[in-house]
From TrEMBL, chain A:
This is Mediator of RNA polymerase II transcription subunit 17. Residues 59-77 have a biased composition (Basic and acidic residues). The keyword Transcription regulation applies. The keyword Ribosomal protein does not apply. It is found in: Nucleus. Keywords: Nucleus, Transcription, Transcription regulation.
From TrEMBL, chain B:
Component of the Mediator complex, a coactivator involved in the regulated transcription of nearly all RNA polymerase II-dependent genes. Mediator functions as a bridge to convey information from gene-specific regulatory proteins to the basal RNA polymerase II transcription machinery. Mediator is recruited to promoters by direct interactions with regulatory proteins and serves as a scaffold for the assembly of a functional preinitiation complex with RNA polymerase II and the general transcription factors. GO terms for biological process: regulation of transcription by RNA polymerase II. InterPro entries: Med22. Keywords: Nucleus, Transcription, Transcription regulation. It holds the Pfam family Med22. This is Mediator of RNA polymerase II transcription subunit 22. GO terms for cellular component: mediator complex.
Amino acid sequence: MANSVNISIEAPIENQIQEITYDGQEIYLAPLSMSENLARLAQKIDFSKTEDDFIGPAIKKEGEGSSDTKSEDETKDAGYQSSMWPWDSVRTKLRSALTEVCVLSDVLSIAKEKRYMVLDPIPAEQIDNRPMVQVYGRKKALAAAAAVLLAGVERLKASETMRTARNMPDFHIDLLRLRQNWRLKKVSNTIVGDLSYRTAGSKFTQTGVFEVTKASEDSIAHQMSLSAGAGGGAGAAPSALRVTVPPELQGVAFITVLCQKEQEDVVTATLNSSALNCPSTLPGEGAELHWQQKLEAAQNVLFCKELFARLAAEAVQLDASIPHMVVANQIMATVLPGIQLLIGLCHNNGQNNQNNGDGVKSEAQSGAGIGKPEHDHVLEHSLHQLLRAVHHSNTHHPFPHPATGPLGPSKRRCLAGPMAADRYELLDMSKEQSLLEQIIQQAQHFFMRRRAEIVLDTIASKEVKDPLIVSHWNALNSPTQSCVKINIMSQGYDAVCRTSLVVHVGEKTLKCICRDGKVRHMSYELQELRDLIYCQIYQHQMVAVQAVARCMGWQLLASSSHLGSGPVEPLGNASSCLLASPSGDRMIAVRCEPSVGIQVFIAQSPRKDFFVSELVQDKKWEHLGGSFKEIKLERMEGKNFLNKMELLMACLSSPT
Amino acid sequence: MHRNLPQNKEALLKSYTTRLKEDVKSMLENFEEIIKLAKGDNESQLNRMTQIEQDTFEMQVRAANIVRAGESLMKLVSDIKQYLILNDFPSVNEAITQNSKLFRTKQQECDQKLMSLRDDIAADLYDLEDEYFTSIYK
């Protein structure tokens, strides 16, 4: 244990070390006395905090007690402490507390006096039941708002489902269809369409404006139920569109053209012409038409009105020899002497139906007895066609023409320069035929054609049996010109001889081109055609006899188509021919007079009644031939004249 | 859409855009306002019950505004459709060309049929005329 180490044990220091000297001695601070310790601690106390804190009254009292003790200490230790400052804060606190207490006592005394100030009790603040009421209120408000929203949604949904579920037509689809077929535009809030022929070249002043509206759902449903009830076929297809046409274009209109014999009293003719009355009821009237049909009908009304207005204006302007008459809705024009053309406009728009309905009925009854003449479909059609042609020519100008200008010279006028047309030709070009003139020409042609037909048919079927008259009407013709080819031939001999002629039927004249190339012009008096045909028939007979004679070996001695002898014919001239048999001993003479007919004479040589006289002593003179004796043709055998002649020739040439 | 539209057409198209924006904006704003009201801790001078009533009515009005905006949008859709239908000239032109083509072919068909019919009738008429005028029964 020699190298054991000494261990020093020290008690822990109780006092704080103030300083350590160089020799290692520690100088301790003297421990604080009780009062010093208290002052140190008191310095740490924050009285303001103590006052403000929510501490129970007991603690407060403690604090008060301590402060009391401190104040005592303060007085006690005043001399002891070198500085007063550790208790300074306590002192200031106490002072301010004193002040406050003084103020309080002042206030209390004033309040107690009740002279200057009265203290009112403040009602205790209610316990708030606001949140629940507010929540209920908001809930209600939100529910109301939601209901409004739902109602709005329902409305939208209902309108949508009603359309789709019931297969209702869509307005916009219909509008699209309408737009594809008609001109539409939007003017402020309405959709307006135009059904006039303005874009097609019409210059009629009346507008064809119609309005497009959306149909109400009730009416669509009604329409759908109707069409469903009618089986879908009869009723118009339901549409979501309504088309409103101006009243002057409603209903149905048409132009009637009627040709009739001229009546003595023009006024009564106008009043009594029952043929031009409109039918009082129209098919499909009353039923709601589809917009397409409605618009087409309105367009037709407009077209008819334009046509009639134009015709009426022309009728007034034209100075014809017999003036045209325009009375109310009728135009009267004289086509040919004794024949009148009546053009009427019938417009039934359902409004004036009532007032003229009775008149129509009574007239229809009176007219039924007379038998009302048929109106002319062809002329009505061509009237429509003529106006359409006018429209077409208004928009289609021949090139070259200014790209922007609506006008342009006609093709003929374009050519007038290069062709060096003179003034008269130019004047002639400027004349344009009016519609009325054209339709009158067509009517005239129609009558000429019909009359020519009648003349040819009566001659062929009733009056002349012997040579056959075959007429062929040409299929190619124009509204004012047609052509008929007439063949005259005898049955059985059509290979031997046939006479053909062509008749051109024009508007007021006939032109006949005969086989020999002669052209004859005739007027509208059909007697001329008749006479010509008769002449041709007799001429044919003469030519045919000669042809038959040639076939039989007979010899044509002489023929003359214009015989100078005999009585003067009222129509043409008599013609004749003289034929000799092959042996030369028989002769036939045929004389044809249109007014009498055909006479045939025969003579033979040697003559049987030849007697030698003092003058003619030689026997040879008996070969001169004797006097001609007439043959009673009607008692001869044979189908027709040529057949009879053939038999006669055969008989005469046989050596008996 | 770089074509030169007329002034009023352009204005119309612009008005469609503004209507669309306005309506959508109105929907959104009204909805936001309703939500705000539902949240609502706005102090006011009014009595509480009055305040609640006012809120209720305001919400209803705003909901109605939303519905109105919705219907206005439907109307806008319909207006735009109408505008398109009425002003879509290319499609109209197409329809017109198609129609005219259709009618032209129809016309040609009819013409051809009529021509052949006329030829047949003319030939028959010739024979019949021949027969009629040469027969004894006339």
